[in-house]
């Protein structure tokens, strides 16, 4: 009797073992976008989601949970189950700049509370002037600012954002001073730029391109390695005479810390497949959201560490804080 029970026991356990080893995912996967619908983070995530869903074989549900510069949605994922059921599309704002902006009030630690899964896109920042300023290239702007410390003002879509900190890095690089005029979003800043109320701004090519093409604004440089396909006539910062200067945002997927490595690897493969799909790549480029084509979880984690080391001190030096 005991021998028979011993023989039956492994057989009785087999269904449970099979369930425990079932390939992930076995249910819908949720990706939290910590910003309102319609923004570039949301648009790029929704563009990639169908291919991610196809690779995983389960529905991928996008949930917009905005507020507090993306920290509310990010924090909700940091405190979510570590079972691969939920991820967050983090950005340079939520996982780097927020550390400097919020300090001890930030409810999560980007490295301790998350595991990096996969980067998706890099968003360039460009330097633009109103034609009335009278400069036609980046060297002319640099000379003007250096000759007139504190005389000129520049606008961005908000204090502590990637455009603002990119502007701080620019002024540091050229050894000049200018006054920051933060707006509550890029739209009101653009209105004042077009009206000549502010003569210099830092924002994305997607915002500036139509007005550059129409001659209402003049974009002087794009602060990434490659020119923007929306403004192919505009040089990179290096081409315009300021090598080494970069300003950008980026997006990437994160999971709660403790998520099993096998799940992280599988999700990385799905995101990479989505980003590298030719149709998706073309659509991202058309919207000036250049895809990041490479990046293992370990490489993305190393990139995050470098970004924290580079940008958080600039945020703190800028004096910007979260409202």
UniProtKB/TrEMBL annotation:
Signal peptide (UniProt feature, chain positions): 1-20
Coiled coil: none
This protein's record includes keyword Signal: yes
CDD domains assigned: PBP2_Bug_TTT
Alphabetic keyword roster: Receptor, Signal
Protein family: Belongs to the UPF0065 (bug) family.
Protein name as annotated: Tripartite-type tricarboxylate transporter, receptor component TctC
Organism ancestry: Bacteria, Pseudomonadati, Pseudomonadota, Alphaproteobacteria, Acetobacterales
């Amino acid at each position: 009797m005991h021998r028979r029970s011993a023989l039956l026991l492994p057989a009785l356990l087999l269904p449970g073992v099979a369930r425990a080893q079932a390939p992930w995912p076995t249910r819908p996967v949720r990706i939290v976008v910590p910003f309102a619908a319609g923004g570039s983070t949301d648009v790029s995530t929704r563009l990639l989601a169908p291919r991610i869903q196809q690779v995983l074989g389960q529905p991928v549900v996008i949930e917009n949970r905005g507020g507090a510069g993306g920290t509310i949605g990010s924090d909700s994922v940091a405190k979510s189950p570590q079972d691969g059921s939920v991820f967050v599309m983090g950005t340079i704002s939520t996982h780097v700049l927020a550390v400097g902006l919020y300090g001890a009030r930030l409810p999560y630690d980007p490295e301790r509370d998350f595991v990096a899964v996969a980067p998706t896109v890099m968003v360039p920042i460009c330097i633009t002037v109103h034609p009335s300023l009278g400069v036609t290239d980046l060297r002319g702007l640099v000379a003007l600012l250096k000759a007139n410390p504190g005389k000129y003002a520049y606008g961005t879509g908000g204090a502590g954002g990637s455009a603002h900190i990119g502007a701080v890095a620019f002024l540091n690089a050229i050894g000049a001073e200018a006054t920051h005029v933060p707006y509550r979003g890029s739209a009101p800043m653009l209105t004042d730029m077009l009206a000549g109320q502010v003569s210099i701004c830092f924002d994305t090519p997607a915002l500036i391109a139509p007005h550059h093409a129409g001659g209402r604004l003049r974009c002087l440089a794009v602060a990434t390695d490659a020119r923007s396909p929306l403004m192919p006539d505009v040089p990179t910062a290096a081409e315009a005479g300021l090598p080494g200067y970069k300003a950008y945002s980026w997006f990437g997927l994160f999971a709660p810390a403790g998520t099993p490595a096998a799940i992280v690897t599988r999700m990385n493969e799905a995101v990479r497949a989505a980003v590298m799909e030719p149709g998706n790549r073309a659509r991202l480029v058309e919207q000036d959201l250049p895809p990041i084509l490479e990046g293992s979880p370990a490489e993305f984690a190393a990139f995050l560490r470098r970004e924290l080391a580079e940008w958080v001190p600039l945020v703190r030096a800028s004096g910007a804080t979260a409202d």
